[in-house]
Amino acid sequence: MILLFARFKLLLLLTAMYHPVHVSVSNLEYNKASHRFELSVKLFYDDFESIIARKYNVFLKLKAEGLNDNEEFYFMKYIKENFILTVNGTKLEPVYKFRKINEDSVWLYLYFEQKEEPEHITLTNRLMMDMFSDQSNLLMIKSTDFEKGYILKGRKDKIEIDLANH
């Protein structure tokens, strides 16, 4: 059993090392009507399975039918550690909605409650950067009068936006 586990970890590591592109796509939009920031995150599911296995020793099978045991817990644990949203000086906690699997990716859908109008945003996105040195995280942010895209990679994993002056 230990040998099988070691082979599985080696296979995950080799798969991760030879993946040709390491990129995530995130869309963060403030919905004024519901007073929420709505977030969607797209990751390659094999990379996401690998990082969860490496960090938490849990082997998800995202392409399998149904949900994995404690899947939501590990999704949120990883997101909370690596996607940090602070609005008007207050760190917001993400709430999990659901996930969808496409051919080669997993889409995670979450939201952050934000009752007051956002004026200043600080966002840190380190998704998958702890696994891949060439990871790029594409980020689209949209609010009432603001829409802009960012590329976060390497040591640039944090942005600050002053919405009050846009």
In short:
With 166 residues, this protein is α+β, with helices and mostly antiparallel strands. 24% of the residues lie in helices and 42% in strands.
Topology, element by element:
Layout: H1 2-17, E1 23-31, E2 36-44, H2 45-56, H3 71-82, E3 83-87, E4 90-92, E5 95-101, E6 105-113, E7 120-125, E8 136-143, E9 146-153, E10 158-162
Parallel strand pairs: 1-8
Antiparallel strand pairs: 1-2, 2-6, 3-4, 3-7, 5-6, 7-10, 8-9
Structural notes for this entry:
This protein has 166 residues and is α+β, with helices and mostly antiparallel strands. 24% of the residues lie in helices and 42% in strands. The chain has one domain. It is built from 3 helices and 10 strands. Strands 5-6-2-1-8-9 form a 6-stranded mixed beta sheet. A 4-stranded antiparallel beta sheet has the order 4-3-7-10. The longest helix has 16 residues, at 2-17.
* Average pLDDT for all residues: 87
The coarse silhouette is globular
Strand content: 35-45%
How many β-strand runs? 10
Q: Which sequence of strands runs across the widest sheet? A: 5-6-2-1-8-9
Could you describe the largest sheet, including whether it forms a barrel? Answer: 6 strands, mixed
Q: What is the CA-based Rg, rounded?
A: 17 Å
